[in-house]
Design goal:
alpha+beta
Amino acid sequence: MDDIYDKKFIIKTLEIDYFNKSIDEIKKYIDNGYKLIGIDPGFKNLITVCDEENNKMLYTISQYNIESRRKKYKNRIQNWETEITNKTITKAGYKKYKKIKGYINSYQNQSFQHLQTKIFKKYGKKCILLFGDCGYNKFNYNLLKFLSKQKSPIYLVNEFLTSKLCPICSKTLQNMYRTGKKNKVARSDVVTPDKNKLIRGLKYCKNCNIMFNRDSVACKNIINKVKRLLV
């Protein structure tokens, strides 16, 4: 199953394209000076962006809520949507609901534009955006839809096991756990694994003796997947 998905990408039109054409396109972009940028979708960090030189950028749910005004109107929209579901909303209430939704959609596009500007400022405009496909929720769909209308090429890449393998040696990474002592952590082969003490943002490679940030690992492995296919 993984092999099948590895040979497909979503191109600028957000339609599935076949392996050879997509790889040829990426090769042409690289020949023209474009560089690969891995994007790992998540929850608290909506996306983590990283390049081959480990230059990292985060876009959090707090940033998104502030920029898109979603937090400001959240309760009012929830109340209106409940009334719509129960068919108790008035015409005036529905008009206000549609107006506020229009505001939010406008602010959302502004937040996406701001995010794109930050990406270009940090990595340059010649970027091939490699977007992990596991966190394909409404936010990511809207972001992909927005980015697909821009000039940068964007491809959706299967991120199976990307956060679980070392980007250097490809060995399985170990989880990290709190030990109970202040600021002390330990590997899963040293302490008894306990879900309540799991540190989800940290991974450790015993082979390389390096500790990694989980989201950064995913970004690097997304890039590595594409680089292996380019050979």
